Amino acid sequence: MKNIIVYINPYHGNTPEVASVLEALHKKHGIAFWGLPKHENLFPATINTITEEELIQIECDCILVFGGDGSILQTKDAALKYNSPILGVNIGKLGFLSETDLTDLEKSLDDLVNKKFLIQSRMLIKAEVWRSSKKIFSILALNDAVIYKSVSPKLIEVKILDHKRHVLTARCDGFVAATPTGSTAYSLAAGGPILTPVMDAIVLTPLNPHILAIRPMVFPAKNKITFRMIDQEHSSMLQVDGVNAIELKEGDEVRITSAKRKVNFIKLSNRTFYQILRNKMHMGRI
To answer: How many domains does the chain have?
Structure first.
């Protein structure tokens, strides 16, 4: 464990504990910490800032993410680009995806150096937008791709197909297409099921459907799910991992498939997924 990429949520950039912990770890283990120039003002002197092209030439052992779940979602592209697993350090609120926090960071890095960890691979989904038979947009999601009515107060009508087979048509606020990782995020809040994060599946959860008969569904990861936008007076929106991605128009199709690549996470502790659910989501508490 010699080279580590560091991402710090700008909102927490002035947290003094981050600088002091990294300085101590650098002196103790001789670890080289690397960051991108756009975050240079957030980093202590311990961290070297270089270009993205230069980072590719360095064999980085992991990406250390200081922030919350949103910060981890933002680093998925870097994890793929530099072929490095993610280790989340929670300095946000919930920190459901984080493996450690500032209090335990020194011990966590000791475990990394001593190779006391596992690699956990998590599935991504690919969302493509097709308009007039042409693909106009493509993006990967670690949590979810959400189709929603945007600023309009009126319901949208969506036709859903599975490999061109009609599944259902619904008038609603939208739909969440979630990975197993994202099944504990927006999808769960909308009434969707919980999947263990190492599964390969796609969760489809409706947002306030107009009839009671429309319920969440789980599809095999190999399936291609198509959302066809019909009968829209106003444009809707595709949101990916909590960020607005592209405006959708009547007749557009959003095609969801599992991505070929996966994002790797570092698993340090013996805490199970169910322990995290009980502790952070209060699952089963009376």
So the answer is: 2
